[in-house]
Amino acid sequence: MEIDLYSDWINLLRHELQQMGYPCPAATQAEDVAVRFFNVLNRTVTTRKYNVHRSAEFSCPQDHLGVVEKIEETLAGGLSVRPHQSRRLSDPDYDDDMLSDWGIHHLHLSTDLEGDGFVRRTGPLLYLTLSRFDAYLIDVREHGHWTSQDLLEIIHSNWPEITERYRLQGVKSVPSITNAEVKKLRGGHCNTVLMLKDGTVLAPIGGGMMTSGVSFLAVRAHDRHARYLKQQEQWIKNNAEMIRRGLGEQYDGPENWMLKLESIDERGALVMREAACGGQIELIPGERNG
Questions:
Q1: CA-CA distance, 263 to 282, in Å (whole number)?
Q2: Which residues contact 218 (CB under 8 A, 6 or more apart)?
Q3: Amino acid 287: pLDDT
Q4: What secondary structure does DSSP assign to 69-128, as a single string?
Q5: How far, in whole angstroms, is CA 246 from its chain's centroid?
Q6: Tell me: the pLDDT tens digits for 86-127?
Q7: What are the angstrom distances between the C-alpha of 47 and each of 41, 82, 87, 132?
Q8: Residue 267 near residue 285, CB atoms below 8 Å
Q9: Which of 145, 194, 252, 287 has a C-alpha 20 to 30 A away from that of 171?
């Protein structure tokens, strides 16, 4: 049997990046392809229907309130807010340090769509954080509040369920640092542990960054998928005859047969196709002996 699930997966991601409008030269290393893909994914506000929440501290200049309300409707309606995101979204290798550190996105408050598909840039920005089905509107602030620790305070006081999993249990205190020091540490790709006003000590709720500046979440996503595919490939090799029988009457090809990965769904199910006969096999974790 010929099988290389990891290489097949990287080729799928390469194609997906190109379909999304991000060039991915053939010379790009395999891991870099995956990290680039997950970096784009992490930075993009996923288009789905969100439950929208405003913090108790939320305020917005009157001349931008209509746009904020329109963005809320867009989020709740399952439409895309991509035009309001940073133009840097067009660069698949750009590292959004505020997002990597604190999990906070920012949106521009204009409705004037420009030629590149993004709205006109604005001074005031909408700062928000997301969970799978919820959009939490923190505040509207001027451009540049990338290291304002009071944004974390607002998240923590309004939605403690967001920060709960990032609390460092048993840690009583850490040295306090200024916003300027947070900026300097981020510039050196250093992750910071912060103590909030109520004494809670938090690890980076955005996952943090690697020493290269790349989002930790993007690197972890690659590593998890690579490990998973290696495990599944070994299982397939150990059960090759059973899988071959699964092709049934479809298979009358050569002894040296080849399985190619076509997709992985949210369950982790692998859809593969045998190259010679075109027969398809779906491998579902937990149901492999069925």
A1: 10
A2: 35, 38, 39, 41, 42
A3: 55
A4: HHHHHHHHTT---GGGS-GGGG-TT---HHHHHH-EEEEE----B-TTSSBPP-SEEEEE
A5: 35
A6: 999 999 999 999 999 999 999 999 999 999 999 999 999 999
A7: 11, 9, 17, 11
A8: yes
A9: 145
